[in-house]
UniProtKB/TrEMBL annotation:
Hydrolase listed as a keyword: yes
Species whose genome carries this gene: Stutzerimonas balearica DSM 6083
GO MF annotation list: hydrolase activity
Keywords, alphabetical: Hydrolase, Signal
PANTHER family: DIENELACTONE HYDROLASE DOMAIN-CONTAINING PROTEIN, DIENELACTONE HYDROLASE DOMAIN-CONTAINING PROTEIN-RELATED
Cited Gene3D superfamilies: alpha/beta hydrolase (3.40.50.1820)
Span of the signal peptide: 1-18
Protein name: Dienelactone hydrolase
Dienelactone hydrolase domain sequence ranges: 42-257
Length: 261
């Protein structure tokens, strides 16, 4: 009953057609790095509502990550696209993206600190219900949110879209507090079948509330309409409208269920 009521309230909020408010908010990570967050919310909704962190692809905090924050705001959430690289930097060059990603992941504690700085910023927004927090991530960001779940960051749920699945710090029994949803392209050549199998074993052994969805025909980057442009740069990426829509609907239901508990 609570689940149905929550869904109806969200639908009513979306139907109000109010303006989605957005703003860039500077903040600092624990290591002193200057960060930029992109915050979005629907001003037709009164009072606090669940908050969702968005973690960008390996390209950095670009227009796509910001668009996803707006999409979540349209669903009725308080949404913040955070910055894992610093100063809001982003790129369209694979070599630069790889360099940024490696630097961000070189120190696991620093990466966690940067995520938590963004999570704290989301908590500080008056529209955020601090008792109900989740995170979604794409590509590099998918790995980040999975790692935060593995490390027991206090989140109600995490969703990984075409995320990297391998990790050096595996979950242990009881460590995963968040519900976990993984949306994975069945034709993703950038994630090995061994990594998929290892994640499944890891989550089962950890006793996690976990769901893995394999999307037929989908390659890496399947949610991003701009993915096809990178084929010319030698990357096996492709947008897949059906997989994009299905995975988004999966996420929508997952968040509704998670926040209704």
């Amino acid at each position: 009953m609570r689940h149905c009521l929550f869904g109806l309230l969200m639908a009513a909020s979306v139907a109000a057609h109010a303006e989605i408010q957005t703003q860039e908010i500077p903040y600092k990570a624990a290591d002193g790095t200057e960060m930029i967050g992109y915050y979005a919310y629907d001003d037709a909704i009164e009072g606090p509502r669940p908050g969702v962190v968005v973690v960008h692809e390996w390209w950095g905090l670009n227009d796509y990550a910001k668009r996803r924050a707006r999409d979540l705001a349209e669903l009725g959430y308080s949404a913040l696209a955070i910055d894992m690289y610093g100063e809001g930097k982003n790129t369209e060059h694979p070599k630069d993206a790889m360099s940024f990603m490696k630097a961000a992941l070189a120190d696991a504690d620093a990466a966690k600190g940067r995520f938590n700085a963004g999570l704290d910023l989301l908590r500080q927004q008056q529209q955020t219900d601090t008792r109900k927090l989740a995170a979604v991530g794409y590509c590099f960001g998918g790995k980040v949110v999975l790692d935060m779940a593995r490390q027991g960051v206090p989140l109600a749920g995490v969703v990984s879209f075409h995320g990297a699945l391998a990790t050096e710090t595996r979950a242990v029994p009881g460590s995963v507090k968040a519900r976990v949803l993984v949306e994975h392209g069945a034709e993703d050549s950038m994630v090995s079948t061994d990594d998929v199998a290892a994640l499944n074993v890891e989550m089962v052994k950890a006793g996690a509330d976990y769901r893995f969805v394999s999307l037929p025909g989908a390659k890496h980057g399947f949610t991003n309409p701009g993915a096809d442009a990178f084929k010319e740069k030698g990357l096996d990426l492709a947008y897949n409208k059906q997989a994009d829509e299905r995975s988004w609907n999966d996420m929508r239901r997952f968040l509704e269920e998670t926040f209704s508990r």
